[in-house]
From TrEMBL, chain A:
It comes from Xyrichtys novacula. This is DNA replication complex GINS protein PSF2. It is found in: Nucleus. Required for correct functioning of the GINS complex, a complex that plays an essential role in the initiation of DNA replication, and progression of DNA replication forks. GINS complex is a core component of CDC45-MCM-GINS (CMG) helicase, the molecular machine that unwinds template DNA during replication, and around which the replisome is built. Signal peptide: none annotated.
Automatic annotation (TrEMBL), chain B:
This is Cell division control protein 45 homolog. It comes from Xyrichtys novacula. One of its GO terms (biological process) is double-strand break repair via break-induced replication. Belongs to the CDC45 family. GO terms for cellular component: DNA replication preinitiation complex. The keyword ATP-binding does not apply.
């Protein structure tokens, strides 16, 4: 999967905006949106929020988890635990990038939030790499990882699968008594 | 006619239509175009952008697009000529003109249906009143009707009536002749001087503000448009300061929006600040020494083309305590201790050397960690890109490149523009120095005259109108500082440079005399027209500024002679 595809899926998440125009309820295939009244908060998917923001028709309200204190707590928790801790949102990385690129004037302390989210991401990816490394070297058959997001899985997917395939080929060729090209099952 | 409510009469009319934007080639027009484009993007209005460089371009563009478009927006072109006469449009085409050229042609002012002027009426326009210029044609018909009625009277009374009728007719004809003479006088006075009004970009920024869609980007573009008028000497200092005050109100309004002790803005957000900064061109992107040598104000006051001047400059730097090594380095690498008080130190020292106005009110922008620009930096960079004389680049390409460099995301374009601007300023300085030292400026009686020969270095740069106009202004300032002849200091300057060697044409620019309190009114437009007519020289009055024309090289001398006779 391409990271842009993951970002596309992330744009379906719901975020709150404050529009400055009025419009009746609109009925889209994915669901109903609206009605829009100036000054009243309304829930919309991220793709619509960004489009309206670029056309200066709304203000984006940062999600609740996008707050310096909460993110600091999460980062410290992540650093203490060995396993993966629950994430603020299944698409936290993509939402941070999108919202901070297009709506950084609506989000207080945007630079610190960017640094904190990057710290959380780095810690989790480090844990993921350790775990993948031990999985391959100890030739385990299966592993269970909780609380991973799609973006993190996506970063490791191709590497992990390719390396496991290579390991499998190497192992099957090392089997005593097997001729070249014959595969044995474990 | 003048538009009073810009939102209802302009924006809401075009918002659901397809519009053609015809934009002139100067920085103010580019900035206005950017602001309008941003507004159109917000409301998804379909538009076509056509850059135009002169009247011929404008007519061609109009002919190409008149089938498809009903609404035309003209930016910085079209107000000072009878547009309907020139373009011959259909009755349903509507033109919205936002132009800084004055005087506005009277037909444009008094046409109610097809021409809408996006110009503020409190710019002192001095438009003559309707009755002074236009007279109803019906009165003529009444006269002849009366005469034919009277003719059918019985013959006995005819002689007496005829005498009365003849007297009345003579009176009417006399009144008509007097009215026409007065009309010619009024029109001549109204149209003889050419000058500039409020920037088009400020007009469109106000539109954005009325629609509450104004962003910092648009504010910055409006500031750049205003600064362009100042850098290219199109408006008086008083007007510039007044307009800066208007912009300052908008800047403070934007800055108070979300700057708070606790919720500070991200570093990537654009911050515009008011600066009382030095008049040294591009000094933050160059070394301080180079900037002082190549800025018009300092170079003319020190007379840097003389040895004496160079010595004075060294004294000046020593007086401020700035070591030469520091001053020749790139500005960003100078010591922090020197940079901190630089402006005050320079302002103080320059008072001793007779430069009282080395500081000027302007604005600066700051986004990201590295990017700081002053408005005048942007103007120089964008002008250099717009008039770049690289091979294989058409006017349209240059226009698009210059337009792109105004966006925040195209910083490499902007930096390339800054480099080209540095080369242009150095070329101007060297040309000024050589002209003064070799006495190329000749006094022709009512004006000064200078001709750049074909072999002059960088003469290709000066085949473009704005570059040549800038050169002439610097040259005139330098001349005024270097000459001892009191009478010559009050003369205007005409400058000519080769434009196209193959076709054998030169470009001629006329600028008003240099003075502290000049009102920047230029009479050369009409003078050039009359001189060309009287000598039947082959001229092309294509540029929107009537004081810039193209002339065949062979006709140069007779054209000049005609001008001398005309103006003395």
């Amino acid at each position: 999967m391409d990271p842009s595809e993951v970002e596309f899926l992330a744009e379906k998440e719901i975020v709150k905006i404050i529009p400055n125009f009025s419009l009746d309820k609109i009925y889209l295939i994915g669901g109903d949106l609206g009605p829009f009244n100036p000054g009243l908060q309304v829930d919309v998917p991220v793709w619509l929020a960004l489009n309206l923001k670029q056309r200066q028709k709304c203000r984006i309200v940062p999600p609740e988890w996008m707050d310096v204190d909460k993110l600091e707590e999460m980062r410290d928790l992540e650093r203490r635990e060995d396993a993966f801790t629950p994430v603020p949102s299944p698409y936290y990385m993509e939402l941070t990038k999108l919202l901070l690129n297009y709506a950084s004037d609506n989000i207080p302390k945007a630079d610190e939030i960017r640094t904190l989210v990057k710290d959380i991401w780095d810690t989790r990816i480090a844990k993921l790499r350790l775990s993948a490394d031990s999985f391959i070297s100890q030739m385990e058959a299966h592993a269970k990882l909780d609380n991973l997001t799609l973006m993190e899985i996506n970063t490791i997917r191709s590497f992990l699968l390719d390396s496991l395939n290579c390991m499998y080929k190497l192992r099957s060729n090392l089997q005593p008594g097997s001729s070249k090209g014959q595969l044995t099952d474990y | 006619m003048f538009i009073t409510d810009i939102r209802k009469e302009f924006y809401e009319v075009v918002a659901n239509q397809r519009v053609a934007l015809l934009v002139a080639s100067d920085i103010d027009a580019l900035c206005a175009c950017k602001i309008l484009q941003a507004l159109f993007h917000c409301d998804q209005v379909q538009y076509t952008l056509v850059p135009v460089t002169g009247w011929q371009d404008l007519s061609t563009a109009f002919l190409e697009h008149k089938e498809q478009f009903k609404y035309f927006v003209l930016i910085n072109c079209g107000a000072n000529v009878d547009l309907l006469e020139m373009l011959q449009p259909d009755d349903d085409s509507v033109f919205f003109i936002c132009d800084t050229h004055r005087p506005v042609d009277v037909v444009n002012v008094y046409n109610d249906t097809q021409i809408k002027l996006l110009i503020k009426q409190d710019d002192d326009l001095g438009v003559p009143s309707y009755d002074d210029i236009f007279r109803d044609e019906e009165e003529e018909g009444d006269d002849s009707g009366n005469e034919s009625d009277e003719g059918s009277e019985p013959s006995g009374k005819r002689r007496r009536f005829d005498e009365g009728a003849i007297e009345r007719r003579i009176d009417r004809q006399r009144a008509k002749r007097e009215w026409e003479a007065r009309r010619r006088e009024i029109l001549f006075e109204y149209e003889q001087y050419e000058y500039h009004g409020t920037a088009a970009s400020m007009m469109f920024f106000e539109l954005a503000w009325v629609l509450t869609k104004d962003t910092k980007d648009m504010l910055w573009w409006a500031v750049i448009g205003l600064t362009d008028q100042w850098v290219h000497d199109k408006i008086t200092r008083m007007k510039y300061i007044t307009d800066i005050a208007t912009m300052q109100r908008h800047v403070s309004r934007h800055n108070h929006r979300n700057e708070d002790e606790e919720n500070s803005l991200s570093i990537d957000c654009m911050r515009i600040s008011f600066e009382y900064d030095l008049r040294l061109s591009l000094y933050q992107h160059w070394s301080l020494y180079e900037s002082i040598c190549n800025s018009c104000y300092t170079s003319c006051n020190f007379k840097l083309w003389t040895l004496n001047g160079q010595k004075k400059l060294q004294e000046f730097l020593a007086d401020m305590g700035l070591p030469l090594k520091q001053v020749r380095q790139k500005f960003n690498s100078m010591d922090m201790s020197i940079k901190e008080n630089l402006r005050d130190v320079i302002a103080e020292s320059s008072m001793k050397y007779g430069m009282k106005d080395i500081r000027i009110q302007t604005f600066g922008v700051h986004f990201g960690f590295k990017n700081r620009f002053l408005a005048s930096d942007m103007v120089h960079a964008t002008t250099a890109l717009l008039e770049s004389t690289e091979k294989d680049e058409s006017d349209g390409d240059n226009f698009i490149k210059a337009l792109d460099s105004l966006s925040r995301s195209n910083l490499e374009c902007l930096h390339a523009g800054i480099d080209q601007a540095k080369k242009k300023l150095m070329a101007i300085q060297q040309t000024v120095a050589s002209c003064i030292c070799t006495n190329l400026i000749l006094s022709q009686g009512p004006f000064l005259y200078c001709y750049l020969m074909e072999g002059t270095p960088d003469v290709k740069l000066f085949s473009k109108p704005m570059a040549l106009a800038l050169l002439s202004k610097y040259l005139l300032k330098a001349f005024v500082h270097s000459t001892r002849n009191k009478r010559c200091k009050l003369l205007p300057l005409i400058m000519a440079a080769p434009k196209d060697v193959e076709k054998g044409t030169v470009i001629v620019v006329g600028i008003p005399p240099e003075s502290e309190t000049s009102d920047k009114k230029n009479f050369f437009g009409r003078a050039f027209e009359k001189a060309a007519e009287s000598t039947s020289s082959r001229t092309l009055h294509d540029h929107f500024d009537t004081s810039i024309i193209e002339l065949k090289t062979e006709d140069r001398s007779k054209f000049l002679d005609a001008l001398i006779t005309l103006l003395s």
